[in-house]
Amino acid sequence: MIITRGRVAGVSDITLARFVSRVRKTIPLRGLVNVVVTTNSEMKRLNEQFRSNDEPTDVLSFPSGEMGGLAGEIAISHEIARENARRLAHSIAEEIKILILHGMLHLAGYDHQNDDGKMARKEHHLRKALRLPDALIERSMTQPRATGRPAKTKLGRTREMER
Q1: Which stretch of 99-103, 122-126, 129-133, 145-149 has the lowest confidence by average pLDDT?
Q2: Pairing of strands 59-63, 70-77
Q3: Residues contacting residue 69 through CB under 8 Å, at least 6 positions apart
Q4: Apex CA 108: angle with CA 29 and CA 156, to 5°?
Q5: 50: which residues sit within 8 A by CB, 6+ positions away?
Q6: Are 27 and 68 in contact (CB under 8 A)?
Q7: Could you report the per-residue pLDDT of 20-71, keeping only the tens digit for each?
Q8: What pLDDT sits at residue 10?
Q9: What distance, in Å, lies between the first and last C-alpha atoms of the chain?
Q10: Do residues 150 and 160 touch, judged by C-beta distance below 8 A?
Q11: E strand or H helix that includes residue 33
Q12: Which of 100, 108, 138, 147 has its CA 20 to 30 A from that of 120?
């Protein structure tokens, strides 16, 4: 299910639902995937509640452990997605798809912090197959964030490392 809080020009729930279905064919997930496209203020609240980080972030993934037929949920900031899309010269729809792909890989158990590049390679391969611009992990290594310097977590890692 796709839930968009507020109107996001150039993005439709139907297009995003179709994209989720395409990605599900390539990533082994059991259960449904819910995606919420929301505001920075809600992302800040979620980031604080679940990661003790008092600022918005672009994407958060919440695996459910396959309880109740749900693989998990993904929350995306349409405001940060818009900034990133503008900065990286592609559409907001493409940016949200990149974030969905990244989030779905996390739901499938990938963890770029601890996998010696396995998630980055998988995301790169899928990005090419799905005809998407640079993968989230790749560009976080080479590009500054649209919202300024990377935020440090309580463990001293940047937010890009924890997504």
Answers
A1: 145-149
A2: antiparallel
A3: 31, 32
A4: 160
A5: 60, 62
A6: no
A7: 999 999 998 888 999 999 999 999 999 999 999 899 999 999 998 767 789 9
A8: 85
A9: 21
A10: yes
A11: strand 32-38
A12: 147
Question: In the prediction, which pLDDT does 136 show?
Answer: 53
Q: Which DSSP string corresponds to 80-128?
A: HHHHHHHHHTS-HHHHHHHHHHHHHHHHTT--TTTSTTHHHHHHHHHHH
15 pLDDT more than 90: yes
Q: Fill in the amino acid letter for 104.
A: M
Rounded Cα distance, 63 and 74, in Å: 8
CA distance 24 to 116: 24
Given a contact cutoff of 8 angstroms between Cβ atoms, the answer to whether 72 and 64 are in contact is yes
The tokens describing 160, both together, are 């890009």
Sort 95 into a burial class: Cβ within 10 Å, 0-12 / 13-18 / 19+: buried
List all residues 6 or more positions away from 158 whose beta carbon is below 8 Å from its beta carbon.
150, 151, 152
Q: In the structure encoding, which two tokens stand for residue 103, read together?
A: 């989030």
52 in Cβ contact with 37 (< 8 Å) = no
**CA gap 151, 159 in Å, rounded:** 6
